[in-house]
Amino acid sequence: MAAQLNQPPLVVESKDVYDAVVVGSGVSGGWVAKELTERGLKVLMVERGRMVRHREDYPGENKRPWELDHRDRVPLKEVEEQHSVQRLCYAFKDTTKQFFGNDRDLPYSTEEGTDYAWIRANQFGGKSLLWARQSYRMSDHDFGANAADGIDGDWPIRHADLAPWYAHVERFAGIAGSKENLPQIPDSEFIPPFEMMKPEIAAKAAIEAKYPDRKVIIGRTANLSQPTELHIAQGRGKCMAREECHRGCSFGASFSTQSVTLPPAAKTGNLHIAPNSVVHSLIYDEADNRVRGVRVIDNETLAEREYLGKMVFLCASTLGSTQVLLNSKSPSRPNGIANSSGVTGHFLMDHNYGADASGSLPGFEDEYFKGRRPTGIYIPNFQYEPSRYRPHYKRGYALGGGAYRGANWQGGEWQDGLGADYKKLLGQAGSWGLNFYFQGETLPLRDNQVSLHPTKKDKWGIPQLHFNVRWSVNEQRMAEDAVVEMEAMLRTAGAVDINATLRPEPPGLAIHEVGSARMGRDPKTSVLNGWNQSHDVPNLFVTDGASFCSTGTQNPSLTFMALSARAADYAARELANQRL
Amino acid sequence: MLLGAGTAAQLAGGNALSAALAFSPRADLAAPGRLFNAEQMAALRTICDLVIPATDIPGAADMDTHGFIDSQLLDVHPKANQDRALQVLTDLDTAALKADGKDWNALPADRQLALLDALDRGLAPFDQTQRGDFKFLKGLVVFGYFTSEAGATQALVFDPVPGGFTGSIPYASVGKAWGPGGLY
Fold first, then answer.
1. Parallel, antiparallel or unpaired: strands A109-110 and A312-314
2. How many domains is chain A built from?
3. pLDDT tens digit sequence for A188-218
């Protein structure tokens, strides 16, 4: 485990001019830092939150339920005072709360009549510590969707541009999944898939027999089902199926910056890290039309300082990077740097998760499983091209889900009974169930905008973000279709007592926010070119979800990784060729 | 074998529990709580014992589930839920006084069981609202017990580090439900 001994130096004040300043240490920033440092570049990674060290700083890990005062529920007073928004996230628990932002310090506003859930993970590693690890490539149907639908904002890249980079990050990260040869989700370079359970195998057979356009596959996930020699050399181990990913995984089986991208970057000796450094804005040289670094406010002392670099990568999350862009104003750029198009902040998207369905599955009484699988089953989008669209809305949705067999004690109070027999009954496994949840694509709409609030600021003196985001009728109709289809497929799989329902959620809660500094071929209608490079300022890159032109139905993080690695490779070459 | 069992165990044990932070059964199982006074705690302890008694393995009262409920209600639940739990104790006292002329705590065990069973099933003298309040409290008893050490490791099969996922095994080879782990 030599990699963990390579702790990169932590920086506070520095006069160095780094080859690159990378803002953010999550999925995107981690990949950029790894790729740049491995190419010999000196990199400063700037993180607004505290340092979180692999294994040392996972206080929730391995806690038994009875060792937790409140059995992993978070005390109400604490929730109300510090986590009024973060509480909405399914993964917010007593053992994970240290990786969620403190809402008291992270205010934002919403336009009247709208709602937005902004889930924050402001520490080293960012949301790579909290993500659900579902990993799917986007296809040419996704990259071409805006063009096919006649919607402005074509992606300037296609799957072929990203394919080698998808392969690169997949081999290194380790994506467990099955080869399927599906046009809507190209296969990754997989490690072995996690197993389906028998009721899922039966459901797959029944659903695929009735619906030739649909496939039921095992969810593709960045957990090491079986590590390769490369993963072992990284100091990572096999997934133990503990379901403790969000608490921090000391086995390194679950992808995080800490377990995957930091060790190789640290090993080069080229990485410095500046934690507790909240980026206020970019330093811009009007004469040269180049960024020179970042202005930073200390997270704790509120002291101001600057970090300098030959280029800047914004990897601060979709909304974080957008906030920095908008707040980097100069007399000639009152609407923020790199925003000659005026689209920064517009076209903010998320996935719509506002529907689900579940039912009981009779039979399989002798079937059981061992371990807590870090993925579910998945039905890829079956409305992935215009000829497959429903007549009354565009695009489509994927479905996540899975079979489950809980224990009788869960909800056991509704079973009448007292005493020894009741106790024994509650200790038995219950009947099987099968569920699906909806993952709907959303359209890029100019009116869905995040902007800087004109007057309100946060404690670091940075203008707060103001959200004006609504689901459109397209997303609503799609969710209604999903309710009908989920119910029909559960019935086809033999489920009974089905409950299929809309369950509206505020935008943002899928935590797949993307699109607010989009790529494009035309500098008049996009912020970034096909290399995630600013059209306006050549040495400025944005490689997180802000760069997306559409959402697809896929969980976006794998694409963040591929875009980041590809952009870093391009930038390193451009820097070497003195074009930045 | 790419990751040896020894390595796995070492990693799993690398993040040791801070015992000081843990909820453990209180030394005096009869002591008053923070929400419930001594009499109310005695009643709650009896309820725990009747819902999930000691058998060949400890029961809910042995695991101080009443102490857990006291702390959970006060720290994690809104006041409305605290009031629901207190209402259950009032309902039992009222019913006991009317039927037997005694407080719930003073009833013989068989009468306590009969009244609690009627409440659980929504039978006279209890109505469905009262039954609903009890189901809420009973849910805390069940959750508290099956996440306690004896509940999780003896009434269930606790498997904190499964070592991997296997999609199909005979239920009989386990014989009970898996204990809580991860996102329970």
1. unpaired
2. 2
3. 999 999 999 999 999 999 999 999 999 999 9
How many residues in chain B? 184
- Residue A3's pLDDT band, with cuts at 50, 70 and 90, is very low
Last residue of a domain, one of A482, A506, A530: A506
Does A283 share its domain with A426?
no
B6 vs A contacts (CB less than 8 Å): none
A161: left (phi over 0), alpha (psi -120 to 50) or beta: alpha
pLDDT(B1) > 80: no
Distance CA B12, CA A576 (A): 45
In a domain, A529, yes or no: yes
pTM for this entry: 0.95
Residue of B22, B72, B113 lying closest to A418 (CB–CB): B113
**How large is the ipTM?**
0.95
B15, B164, B176 member nearest A428 (Cβ): B176
A412 touches chain B (CB under 8 A): yes
Single-letter amino acid code for the residue at A530:
G
pLDDT tier at A84, thresholds 50, 70, 90: very high
How confident is residue A225, by pLDDT bands cut at 50, 70 and 90? very high
Q: What is the residue range of A121's domain?
A: 2-177+223-352+443-470+511-576
* Spatial separation of the C-alpha atoms in residues B155 and A428, rounded to whole Å: 9
Whether B111 contacts chain A with CB within 8 A: no
What secondary structure letter does DSSP report for A66? G
CATH number at residue A525: 3.50.50.60
